[in-house]
Structure formats: C-alpha cells, structure tokens
Amino acid sequence: MRQNYKLKIAYDGSRYYGWEHQPDQELTIQGKLENVFSKMVDEEVEIIGAGRTDAGVHAKGMIANVFLDTDMTPDEIRDYANRYLPDDIALMDVKVAAERFHSRYNAVGKTYVYTCYYNRIKTIFDRKFVYTLDRMPDVEKMQKAASYLLGQHDFASFCSNPRMKKSTVRIVDNIEINKRGSYISFTYHGTGFLQHMVRILTGTLLEVGFGVREADSMPELIEAKDRKLAGYTAPAKGLCLMKVDYN
Q1: 138 catalytic per annotation
Q2: What is the pLDDT of residues 161-197, one digit of tens each?
Q3: Which structural domains are found in the chain, ordered by start?
Q4: Which of 65, 66, 27, 64 has its CA nearest to residue 45?
Q5: What are phi and psi of 93, to 5 degrees?
C-alpha cells in the first residue's frame, strides 16, 4: 500500500554538492537517497527534504518525506537503505506519516550549529567538521552582537542571493555562543534561514570577535539590507543542521 514516510537523515556533507539535485551532478544527498529508494521499490521516487543544505554542509537531523508503495515495515526500510547507502549517509529513523505531512512546508523551526576551532595544535579527527581559526575571538563581544540579531527582522544583508524574490524577513529567536576549550559553537534557532544566512551571520559575528566591526553596529547593518556590508561567509564545513521542528 502506498504511504507517506517521515525520514530522519544524518550525513557528512564533505564530498557532496549539497542536498538538492544538481544538473549533471550525481553527488547530492537527495540523489543518493532517491537512487537507493527507487531500487528498493522498483520505481522512481521523489524524496522531499526539509531544506536545502549547501555543498559541504553536514546534518545530524535532516527530515524528509517520501511516498512508497511497499510491504516493508519502517524498520525494514531503514535497514535496507543503510545497507546500500554510502558510509557518509545514514538513515536514522523511519516512521509512517500522515498523507498530508510535508517535510518542508510543515516545518516551523530549525536549529543549526556552527563550530570553530582554535589551538596551536591542529585538530585531526574532526577537521572536516570545524572551521579552524588563526586566533581566538572575543566571545563576550560576539554574544553582545548576537543579541541585536534576535527577533523578527529583514535579513537581506545576510542573504547571498541578490535576486531573492520571496520575503527575506525571518525570525531568529535564539543565538547561543559558547566556548569549550579550543572549540567555539554558534547555535542558531529560527523559523527558517535564507541562503548562506547562518554562515554569513557567523562570519559577521567573528568579525566582531576579531575587532573588525563593533557589536552595536548590528542594527544599522540589518537596516541597510545590503549583503556587501555584512561579514564574510564562513566555510561550509563548520555548519551542521541539528534539528527540524514540527507542531
């Protein structure tokens, strides 16, 4: 019987060109998943993701949904997929979902974590998942700057798509910046994020931490709605999608 299934997926995005299908490009997360699922049910399937992570971005809690005509149980679907998926993609959970469940349209929030590292001794085993800094930024200054970014704002200054036709207004209700040893983590939660928004926010906050710009310049930057005035785009490898919220 044809049913809708909710999938929870984790992946190391290092070698992929992002989640979404790319023209003439096989190395996408969506493409790898659809290839395995299509073979499982012997027909073409479409997997809908909760968002489109960029090339090189990772996920521990990407949510997707797919309609399948199969007699397999959710656990059997999970085990089959994990048997044939590459080692850097894992299907963490499969559940039967309501027919109207849509992983993208029904999402009400997302949590991303961006991780930086600074130490005179380079990190080896997590080097693909952190952005290595050449000096330690001032965490308190970054926390002060982050406080100005909370709430509902037009985040056009933090969007890399200059031809964005849809609204660039978003709600960011929490930004936590924590230092633990050699690691600094930036945790963002909001209703949704624009293209490269989390990475641009991180680059901008790091510039505050390095003394390149002042913390209290954030309101003016938001008001300007000009990408050229914001900070640099932090590298993709430090970013991970942790969780997608649903009501």
Answers
A1: no
A2: 877 778 999 999 999 999 999 999 999 999 999 999 9
A3: 2-97 (3.30.70.580), 108-246 (3.30.70.660)
A4: 66
A5: -160, 145
DSSP string, 115-133: EEE--SSPP-TTTTSSEE-
pTM of the model: 0.95
Confidence at residue 79, expressed as pLDDT on a 0 to 100 scale: 98
Active-site residue among 12, 24, 42, 54?
54
DSSP string, the chain: -EEEEEEEEEE--TTSS-SS-BTTB---HHHHHHHHHHHHHTS---PEESS-PPTT-EEEEEEEEEEEE----HHHHHHHHHHHS-TTEEEEEEEEE-TT--TTTTEEEEEEEEEEE--SSPP-TTTTSSEE-SS---HHHHHHHHHHH-EEEE-GGG-S-TT--S--EEEEEEEEEEEETTEEEEEEEES---TTHHHHHHHHHHHHHTTSS-GGGHHHHHHHT-GGGS-----GGGEEEEEEEE-
Smallest CA-to-CA distance from 64 within 22, 85, 27, 95 is with 95
Q: Look over the chain and give the mean of its residue pLDDT values, rounded to a whole number.
A: 96
Token pair listed for 105: 């349209």
| pLDDT tens readout for residues 64-98 | 999 999 999 999 999 999 999 999 999 999 999 99
Instruction: Enter the tokens of residue 136.
Output: 């330690």
Residues found in the chain: 247
